[in-house]
Design a protein that fits this description.
746 residues; alpha+beta; 6 domains; six-stranded antiparallel β-barrel; five-stranded antiparallel beta sheet
Length: 746
């Protein structure tokens, strides 16, 4: 369906029906397909969850969860409950995956609607046809899918709430552990250790510049010596390279072999969640989180010519299947715009082990909505991602590209030394016409077998082996999928959590480097909680969740089987391990202030050198990345006195900037609460207060100065720009994405 096209309303029934989805955008897009007999409302995401202030799981009562309605959702839940009471039928139209099923179940539990009054409908694209089909084929809520989601949520809560306090006591305050999060940290740490352990080796490559008989230049690489193929490290140093150079110079050369081979390159399948995250990271440099945020917008609907249009199918999927309707549309487009030669009838079959929440691949809802035709309605990120999805889906229905590869050998007369050069030519571009890759022509000069090749120069080139690259979002997602750790829908939030919790940082905005504390926490977990960070164990748990979803297992026994040995081990380690043995390491260095031994300690942000005579002597030194130490700057003494003990205040620097604290720390822990800095922004929530800079133990945040009367708060600094949908200020997150400060605005 093209944007702006007048569409007929679905008059499915004369009853007053309530349709509930997660987001206002999704509600707006769906409502245009329905008559006035339907009222489409949004829940603004999850409406119930485990409580934030306590564990919320009764372990002794078969792991019974206690769900609460968050304060921010109470008003909305009350409104929806009233609407549900008045409706003749309630349609739960949340997303088709386990999270969506759970939201529908929670809403049904809150509403207490009888089965005769409630229906569950699902669809994988927001189009008129899909909504009509969903209404024609309602079902009941799938309790197996709900239980699978509950099992994951409860297990993650048990691990987080039990293991994180253990880290606080034994390592440092503020640390966290998570069932999948800690496995991702292990991957990042192990990759860094590979890099640290890597031994760089020198090696040399020898190339020859030649001329054909027609005086055309080309360059070839030394390939064989005395019949032996040279591997990458065959020429180890300059002396060996120079010796070979002398033997190669002054020889006569001829073309001994020309091999031509035609190859085919097939198109890739359309995107799954995982492959979309990988390709968007490689091509567009989007993080996994950024990709999913933009894809969500494209799925729920974009304003085009005054109409809200869902542009892609559901973006959480493990499937590469495409509907017959789409493949027919794609075939028509390819024939009409490119010609029959470009058309292929290839079908992709889903191979994913956990294809649990998928019906179809990620594709455009209509082939005729080309990226160029709606470019003005999309922002830069939306256009780039939609273009990628559109091109990949259409290209999957196109014929293979045909390439001709040519390999030429250039020998000395005695055939002792052989150079080789390769090239390729695209004979037919096929799917590359729509979905271009790095493939390009590497054209060689015209040559004939046995003709002379004139040597112009021999060039030895020094090279060094390179350590493995750190993980990008793309390579990390690929490994997670290969190992069966988590599911595609969990990759993006897990990677984001690892960064937010201070276990990794982005290098050059792309590669993930572990922090010092990541090594400490990972080593502790690997040594004392091996199952928690074991790849196979974590993958097996994902299989258990799949079995629960399919009705093969009950969720409580799965939780019990994991929890009982985990909890026993945790209690044993509580008694067995002391903070000192985990976080202190003896050194030969003496304190330059009091002469006591210096020890390596572990703090919230990693290792540092400290005097063993603490707190009598407070000498500390920073440990640099090269292993050297650096004196910590003395805090600046201020004229102000501490109101609690009378000592001078000093200016200290913490993770979130400068602050004033007592010089008698740690005996006195007074910190001066500075006046909040006004941002000259009116509070968007209460309209009375002002948005000011505040500080908490977790860092700087921005909130209303009338708190607790108004609880508006955001971690990201608000900008002058206002959200077009709700009027709240926009903000820039740590990845540079511009987003709304209103948590319920999507």
């Amino acid at each position: 369906m093209l944007a702006g096209k007048i569409i007929s309303k679905i008059k499915h029934t004369k009853m007053k029906n309530l349709v509930i989805v997660e987001s206002p955008t999704k509600a707006k897009t769906i409502s245009k397909f329905l008559s006035k007999d339907f009222k489409v409302e949004s829940s603004f995401g999850h409406v119930r969850d485990l409580p934030a202030s306590k564990i919320g799981v009764d372990v002794e009562n078969n792991f019974e969860p206690t769900y609460t309605i968050p304060t921010k959702a109470k008003k909305r839940v009350k409104e929806l409950t009233e609407l549900a009471k008045k409706a003749d039928l309630v349609y739960f139209a949340t997303d088709e995956d386990r999270e969506g099923e759970a939201i529908s179940w929670h809403l049904a539990q809150i509403f207490k609607t009888p089965a005769s009054k409630s229906k569950r409908i699902t669809f994988h694209e927001i189009t008129e046809e899909a909504i009509k089909e969903a209404l024609d084929n309602p079902r009941t809520i799938d309790i197996n899918m709900v239980d699978s989601q509950q099992a994951r949520r409860i297990l993650d809560r048990l691990v987080g709430y039990k293991l994180s306090p253990f880290l606080w006591k034994k390592v440092a305050r503020g640390l966290s552990a998570g069932r999948v999060q800690s496995v991702v940290v292990r991957l990042v740490v192990e990759k860094e250790r590979e890099i640290q352990d890597f031994k760089i080796e020198e090696h040399w490559e020898i190339t020859g510049d030649f001329k054909t008989e027609k005086q055309e230049d080309f360059t070839a690489r030394l390939h064989k010596v005395s019949g032996k193929t040279l591997d990458k490290l065959a020429i180890k140093n300059e002396a060996e390279a120079t010796k070979l150079q002398e033997k190669l110079e002054g020889n006569d050369y001829y073309i001994s072999e020309i091999v031509k081979k035609e190859t085919k390159r097939n198109s890739n399948p359309p995107f799954t969640t995982s492959t979309l995250q990988q390709e968007a990271n490689r091509r567009l440099h989007f993080s996994a989180k950024q990709t999913m945020m933009v894809a969500q917008k494209l799925y729920e609907g974009i304003e085009i010519n005054g109409d809200s249009v869902g542009l892609i199918t559901y973006m959480r999927t493990d499937s590469t299947n495409l509907s017959k309707k789409f493949t027919a549309e794609a075939a028509d487009y390819i024939k009409d715009n490119l010609g029959k030669d470009y058309l292929s009838s290839k079908e992709f079959k889903t191979k994913s082990k956990g294809a649990q929440e998928a019906h179809e691949a990620i594709r455009p809802t209509a082939v005729v909505i080309t990226p160029e035709s709606i470019a003005r309605s999309l922002n830069d990120q939306q256009f780039k991602l939609y273009q990628l999805i559109w091109q990949r889906a259409v290209a999957s229905q196109m014929s293979p590209a045909r390439l001709e590869a040519t390999s030429v050998d250039i020998n000395t007369k005695d055939d002792k030394y052989i150079f080789r050069v390769s090239g390729q030519v695209i004979k037919f571009d096929g799917f590359l016409k729509i979905y271009p890759t790095a493939t390009k022509d590497e054209i060689l000069p015209q040559m004939d077998k046995n003709e002379k090749a004139e040597l112009i120069a021999i060039k030895p080139i020094q090279k060094f082996t390179q350590p493995p690259a750190r993980y990008s979002d793309a390579s990390l997602v690929k490994v997670l999928e290969e190992k069966g750790i988590g599911r595609p829908s969990t990759y993006a939030p897990t990677i984001a959590t690892v960064i937010e919790r201070g276990y990794a940082e982005r290098i050059d905005n792309r590669r993930l480097k572990p922090t010092e504390i990541a090594f400490v926490v990972n080593d502790l977990l690997v040594k004392h909680f091996a199952d928690i960070v074991d790849y196979d164990f974590t993958a097996k748990m994902e299989d258990n969740f799949d079995d629960i979803s399919e009705g093969k297992k009950k969720w409580q026994p799965v939780i019990k089987e994991f929890y009982e040995p985990f909890n026993q081990n945790l209690m044993a380690k509580e008694q067995e391990l002391t903070k000192k043995e985990i976080t202190e390491e003896k050194t030969d260095e003496k304190c330059d202030k009091c002469g006591s031994d210096m020890v390596i300690k572990v703090g919230r942000f990693g290792k540092f050198l400290a005097c063993s005579n603490y707190p009598t002597c407070k000498n500390t030194k920073k440990i640099l990345s090269n292993g050297q130490t650096e004196e910590r700057a003395e805090p600046q003494k201020l004229d102000e006195k501490c109101p609690e003990c009378g000592s001078h205040l000093v200016l200290r620097t913490g993770r979130y900037g400068e602050f004033k604290g007592c010089s008698n720390y740690p005996k006195c822990k007074y910190i001066k609460n500075e006046a909040a800095k006004d941002l000259n922004l009116k509070c968007p929530q209460c309209k009375d207060g002002n948005v000011v800079t505040k500080r908490s133990k977790k860092g700087v945040f921005y909130g209303c100065d009338t708190y607790p009367k108004c609880d508006f708060a955001t971690w990201y600094k608000p900008l002058d720009t206002k959200c077009e949908k709700c009027g709240y200020p926009m903000c820039e997150d740590k990845n540079g994405n511009i987003k709304c400060t209103n948590k319920i605005c999507k």
